[in-house]
């Protein structure tokens, strides 16, 4: 039987996002987006990851000139309304984890589905509380796991998350980079309206 479902392209080089979509048994092709990830400092924090995800999706759409569904996402960590990006150095990673230690922060993933000029977007928020972390724990984690490609300098799915997180409220997979079940729901709606 011919498969009339539109092709899905994941505009990402993130191994976590690929893994999550594979776990969801979604058929897709991944294409790296070289989009600019900068944003205006006046932008409300909730809008930032959707704005960046849209730029990633558009960059891949232009690169491929394709009518596939492009799926892009961006994850940020927000503490006291301040965005914590990926750490640029060992010192910055240590500093970020000291700030997160003993506190609650938000992880926001913006998701954009794009096909031709039709778009669906949303932001998913998960609240995460870290136990108080010692400097010994923080330095061990940073030196062993080198979390330089992770927003907030940590991965919930690694040692620091497994041992250092007190509670989460919201979707775990959103923290890992993709709120998979919500993405699947939206993909279903989106495909139905095409
Ligand atoms: C907070 C947190 C982030 N992360 C990851 C998810 C994202 O991949 C990354 C944030 O950076 P992003 O810019 O969202 O994604 P990326 O650069 O890895 O990939 P691409 O732009 O190509 O899609 O941090 C975790 O894996 N675990 C966590 O607990």
From TrEMBL:
<comment type="similarity">
    <text>Belongs to the Maf family. YhdE subfamily.</text>
</comment>
<keyword id="KW-0378">Hydrolase</keyword>
<feature type="active site" description="Proton acceptor">
    <location>
        <position position="74"/>
    </location>
</feature>
<feature type="site" description="Important for substrate specificity">
    <location>
        <position position="16"/>
    </location>
</feature>
<dbReference type="GO" id="GO:0036218">
    <property type="term" value="F:dTTP diphosphatase activity"/>
</dbReference>
<feature type="site" description="Important for substrate specificity">
    <location>
        <position position="75"/>
    </location>
</feature>
<keyword id="KW-0963">Cytoplasm</keyword>
<dbReference type="Pfam" id="PF02545">
    <property type="entry name" value="Maf"/>
</dbReference>
<dbReference type="InterPro" id="IPR029001">
    <property type="entry name" value="ITPase-like_fam"/>
</dbReference>
<dbReference type="GO" id="GO:0036221">
    <property type="term" value="F:UTP diphosphatase activity"/>
</dbReference>
<dbReference type="GO" id="GO:0005737">
    <property type="term" value="C:cytoplasm"/>
</dbReference>
<protein>
    <recommendedName>
        <fullName>dTTP/UTP pyrophosphatase</fullName>
        <ecNumber>3.6.1.9</ecNumber>
    </recommendedName>
</protein>
<keyword id="KW-0546">Nucleotide metabolism</keyword>
<comment type="function">
    <text>Nucleoside triphosphate pyrophosphatase that hydrolyzes dTTP and UTP. May have a dual role in cell division arrest and in preventing the incorporation of modified nucleotides into cellular nucleic acids.</text>
</comment>
<dbReference type="GO" id="GO:0009117">
    <property type="term" value="P:nucleotide metabolic process"/>
</dbReference>
<feature type="site" description="Important for substrate specificity">
    <location>
        <position position="157"/>
    </location>
</feature>
<dbReference type="InterPro" id="IPR003697">
    <property type="entry name" value="Maf-like"/>
</dbReference>
